[in-house]
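task queued by scheduler; priority normal; single chain, no ligands, no partner chains; default sampling; output format set to structure tokens
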Amino acid sequence: MRFAHVKYRMDLKKKYTREVKKVVDAQFEVNGNIEEDKRGFLAYVADSFRQSSNREREKMPFIGEINKIGAVIKKLPKSPHPAIPSREVLLSLLGAFLGIGFTALLAYLWKFPVLLGPFGASSVLIYGAYKSPLAQPRNVLLGHFVSACIGVVVHDFFGATVWSIALGVALALVLMTVTYSIHPPAGATAYIAVQTGGLGAAYMYIFNPVTVGAFILVLIGVVFNKLGKREYPTHWW
């Protein structure tokens, strides 16, 4: 009787173990299916992105060329860019403001066109790149003067045409070169002279606004840079 009872308990324990194993196996299978579903979903998303990316590449084939060009540009030698003191930046700001501001004030008070577009570029050189040979008084004054003369003369002979404007700027460049007075903004002075007939003032354009305005910019540049303890001009003539 006792042996039968023990056997019954053992059979019951084995049955319970089999049931637990079934539950564990079922749970493992469910978890495996979930993980498989997750992996399948992630693979689906990755494939979608990959296909979308491939479609974008097909639509924009030039992206690869741009990347190649960017790689070539990165390999090009770079010029050194030393740190610029904040004092230099501030002085350049104040100098350009005073130079252009004073010519604007005179234009308003005198009712004369002392202002001229190329003077904006001249200010960048005089108050910013003041050590440049192109920013020295000889270059600024003589460059603007000869360019204004050439521009007005070309307009007087040939009028304002496409080729006469090109001729005026080209001749101004040659004359600045042979007189050692190259000043890039002066090319625009010749351009304006041919295009507008010296702003409608003809030969008076050479004196005002060109010569007077350039002289004011240089004068303020000399005084301001000296007060700011900056070396300008490095040479006068």
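post-processing summary
- Residues 2-59 form the longest helix (58 residues).
- Residues 86-227 form one domain.
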